[in-house]
Write a structure and sequence with these properties.
Number of helices: 3
Structural class: mainly alpha
Low-confidence stretches: none
Largest sheet: none
Shape: globular
Distance between the termini: 42 Å
């Protein structure tokens, strides 16, 4: 299998991807049990990326959806 290298664009803010910000707020709230600034979220994202753990963001999203059920407006997110 051939390994393909891709260029990683460094995340500086969430203006172009508000959905990623929403996912990161959810992840940070679940894992750290506290709110975070955008700088905290960006640092956490870079840490996850460097350690090949971006999947944790989506696992937390799936977990929070299972707590409240589909369509429940009272999610864990605090934007």
């Amino acid at each position: 299998m051939k390994h393909i290298k891709t260029k990683h664009e460094e995340l500086r803010d969430f203006t172009l991807n508000p959905k990623l910000r929403e996912l990161m707020v959810n992840y940070y709230g679940i894992t750290h049990e506290m709110s975070a600034t955008d700088d905290d979220l960006i640092l956490e994202y870079h840490w996850l990326f460097r350690n090949n753990n971006l999947h944790f963001i989506f696992e937390c999203e799936q977990l929070s959806n299972s707590w409240n059920g589909p369509g429940d407006p009272n999610t864990y997110r605090t934007l």
